[in-house]
């Protein structure tokens, strides 16, 4: 299901005296967060200027101009507007609850997305549990608007098989 907002990171601390915050990004890389110029925190929209510092981001938010104001949003989640993100990009959070089909057979729904070095793996639970690698060989179609995914299952994907 397409979400209106995507959780992109957590504000972990303040930086300096002019209201900058340090964000631990939850995107693929810290550089990805710098592609956006607005965000949302606790339901309030902010414009933002972002730069990378090692594995984190330093972010200056509109209206947050002091260390005290920055301290007040420490521990909060920074969200991006889905409409600002390319339609082709699919986030793990959007896959949770998607109905998974092999042909006409409903296998269950995505309950988790595991991130392994080679690729992601979708955990699908229904009558049985499946671990499906997120590669084109097995994932044929993801329709977030229709809340469905078409897959091919091979031997060994069902986790309760012997």
Key words describing this protein structure:
single chain; 162 residues; mainly beta; 6-stranded antiparallel β-barrel; 6-stranded mixed beta sheet; 48% strand
Question: What does this 3D model show about the protein?
Answer:
The chain has 162 residues and is mostly beta strands. Helices cover 9% and strands 48% of the residues. The protein contains 3 helices and 12 strands. The chain has helices at residues 30-33, 67-72, 92-95; strands at 5-15, 20-25, 38-41, 44-53, 56-61, 77-81, 99-102, 105-115, 120-125, 129-133, 139-143, 148-151. The strands form 2 sheets. A 6-stranded antiparallel β-barrel has the order 1-2-5-4-3-6. Strands 10-9-8-7-12-11 form a 6-stranded mixed β-sheet. The longest helix is centred in the middle third of the chain and has 6 residues, at 67-72. The protein is elongated and about 60 Å long. The two termini are 33 Å apart. The mean pLDDT is 95.
Q: Please tally the β strands and state the result.
A: 12
SSE string, helices as H and strands as E: EEHEEEHEHEEEEEE
- Rounded radius of gyration (Å): 19 Å
**Low-pLDDT sequence parts:** none
Derived structural class = mainly beta
Shape: elongated
Number of helices: 3
Measured between the Cα atoms of the first and last residue, the distance is 33 Å
Percent helix range: under 10%
Give the strand order of the largest sheet, numbering strands 1, 2, ... along the chain: 1-2-5-4-3-6
Report the β-strand fraction as a percent range: over 45%
Mean pLDDT: 95
Q: What kind of sheet is the major sheet?
A: 6 strands, antiparallel, barrel
């Amino acid at each position: 299901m397409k979400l209106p907002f995507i959780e992109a990171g957590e504000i972990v601390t303040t930086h300096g005296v002019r209201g900058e915050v340090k964000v631990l990004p939850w995107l693929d890389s810290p550089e990805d967060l710098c592609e956006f110029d607005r965000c949302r925190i606790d339901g309030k929209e902010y414009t933002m200027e972002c730069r990378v510092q090692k594995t984190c981001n330093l972010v200056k938010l509109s209206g947050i101009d002091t260390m005290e104001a920055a301290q007040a949003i420490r521990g909060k989640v920074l969200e991006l507007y889905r409409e600002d993100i390319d339609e082709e990009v699919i986030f793990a959070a959007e896959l949770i609850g998607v109905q998974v089909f092999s042909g006409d057979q409903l296998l269950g729904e995505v309950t988790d997305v595991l991130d392994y070095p080679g690729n992601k793996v979708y955990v699908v639970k229904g009558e049985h549990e499946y671990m499906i690698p997120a590669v084109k060989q097995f994932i044929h179609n993801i329709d977030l608007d229709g809340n469905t995914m078409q897959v091919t299952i091979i031997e060994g994907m069902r986790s309760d098989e012997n």
